[in-house]
Amino acid sequence: MLSDLLQMSVLASILAATLRIATPVLLAALGELVAERSGVYNMGVEGTMLMGAFTAYLAADGTGSLTLGLIAAMLTGALMSLLFAILVVTLGIEQIVTGLAINLLGSGLSVFWLRAAFASDAKSPTIALFEPLDIPGLAGLPFVGPVLFQQKLVTYLALLAVPAVWFFLYRTRQGLELRCCGENPKALDVKGLSVAARRYGAVVFGGAMAGAGGAFLTLATSARFVPEITAGRGWLAIVIVIAGMWRPGPVLLATLAFSFLDALQLQMQGIGIRVPYQILLAMPYAVAILALALRRRQSGAPEQLGIPYIRG
Amino acid sequence: MTPAAPHRWRIEVVRDATPRRRALSLAAVMLLALALCGLLLRAAGADPGTALAALVRGAFGSLNAATETLVRATPLIFTGLAAATAFRARVWNIGAEGQVFAGAICAYGLSHGLAGLSPLVQLPVVLAGAMIGGAAWAGLAGLLKTACRVDEVISTVMLNYIIVYVLSMLLLKGPWSEAGGFFEQTAKVDPGSVLPVILPGTRLHLGFALALLAALAMQVLLARTPLGYEIRGAGSNLRALSVQGASAARILILVMILSGLLAGLAGATEVYGVHGRLKAGAITGFGYAGIVVAILGGLRPWGVVGAAIFFGALVNGGTYMQIKTGVPSALIYAFEAIILLACLAGWAAAGLRIRKVADAV
């Protein structure tokens, strides 16, 4: 059995699956990372992803265009987060509870809309999926090709978003100001710069990314929306931001580690290793708790994370 | 015509919001929420008036409908109390969902070997099992927080996902699956372990009376006991409390255990009061709905009971509405979220005012 897992071709397929599985979580985690660096703890990722997954499916089914589906999901995610931002940034409501409300909204609205749009879950049509996009010249490489260069467009975009977010946060003036919102908002305020505007921007960006992550599930993986299709990926994104100590690079590593576990369990199910599949499915959640319990230091969290900024 | 003086709108905090102001603001947002729900009904192709009438009829139209509403409210009272207790202490136990599962699993595990014995033996075991299971699953999250500094929001959510697989493992070709059964469920539980009906001719069972008792107990505990004082204190001023010698870690663990045992009872009332067998479908969703109920009830025990009955009515009436008007009953869950958001916004808005201020030029 173990030798089956160690064959090169099997390893390549596990690693390729790792990147595929990582895509939605990575997108959502990068979005949450930016929101949290601005000082806002958005716990509504799960519901936002869910609505993204649903609207992507609805739009792609209606228009026949996957790109429009992706855009619809990002817009929906941005809208959900705008609502969240109004409640927590402007009205200063407890962020944890508001995030939960957003999750309930996403879960309720998506199921209701699905049932209203299609007679039954089984009768909802399937859509064409994103095709893998081979990178010319690289896709043919042995081992590396199938792992890295035969992925889908959104996966490349998610991976490119890591350095982009890093560059924005650490190498631009706006990024510095945004991080300052999370560490010392008063300093920005004193300079006459709006803390609220930057937090709105960060939260809405996070929502669009979560929407895109959700879209990947319906447009590149499942071909149809099923209730609770996100299955905790939004929560995993939040865990990954913590495990990644609020930095883009480590966030990528943490995402890959979780996704590798998931890919491994899929492969183990595939070759019939005799472990109850429920244990394999529960593993990422248990590992998430372990990862948080065993990490050496707490630091890395923005000083003002979760605390509303009230002027005056 | 002279141009208007430069000005902008500014949101300010009102420090002394009167109860009247709060009530007005809450009423205004609730109307907005109702209007939104009406829009959703219209979007589903139904006349909002007809649909709402069907909803009310389905919830309270007859003795049967009304008691069914109370049956639906029962687990929500427990999970609502669970969330309210934790939130009062600013402990973010999001894990009532999983603690309901843990309660049901533990109750079944301890009691299914007692088939045939008197209800006087079986019922206490069922209830105690539910409390132990819920408290243990919640206490685990509490320990993770105090011993390993794992945020309870994250750990309780992760534990929610894990316990669903634990149950699935026990039920799907597992030790507890119904012999020869195809579904992921146990066989019918022993009649001696079923919670007795308290109003003959209906399905209203002992669990509802226990839920009211739990609300009373929580009311007394919060208002009249040292632990209640500490819980309320932890919510408002933890530092002052530690100066008095209370340990934050001890309060956190106690609150988690209390919250978990309340949630666990919801698992027992559903399995032993309504469905008569253990299956995931019988106990799903009450934990998350309980959070909404707790907030809507203002984190007060009797408020929770009122909010739970309101939500029980929504769910119960929603089924009837679906039959009468074809509107998917899943709409109720969107309603719940909208009402929660409106409630939060109403609270916050009462403490804010918008004022025109001259622009500093």
Shape of chain B: globular
Q: Which strand order do you get reading across the main beta sheet of chain B?
A: 1-2
Q: Structural class of chain A, please? A: mainly alpha
User: What is the count of helical runs of chain A?
Assistant: 13
Tally of structural domains of chain A: 1
Helix and strand run of chain A:
HHHHHHHHHHHHH
Global outline of chain A = globular
* CATH level-3 fold name of chain A: ABC transporter involved in vitamin B12 uptake, BtuC
N→C terminal distance of chain A: 65 Å
Give helix and strand order of chain B, one letter per element, not per position.
EHHHHHHHHHHHHHHE
- Give Rg of chain B in angstroms: 23 Å
The tally of beta strands of chain B, per DSSP, is 2
Overall pLDDT confidence of chain A: 89
Which secondary structure elements does this structure contain, and how are they paired or packed?
The complex is a heterodimer of chains A (312) and B (361).
Chain A: H1 2-6, H2 8-37, H3 45-63, H4 66-90, H5 95-117, H6 144-148, H7 153-171, H8 173-183, H9 185-190, H10 195-222, H11 233-243, H12 248-270, H13 277-294
Chain B: E1 7-13, H1 19-43, H2 48-60, H3 63-88, H4 96-111, H5 119-148, H6 152-171, H7 206-224, H8 226-236, H9 238-243, H10 248-275, H11 280-283, H12 286-296, H13 301-325, H14 331-350, E2 352-358
Antiparallel strand pairs in B: 1-2
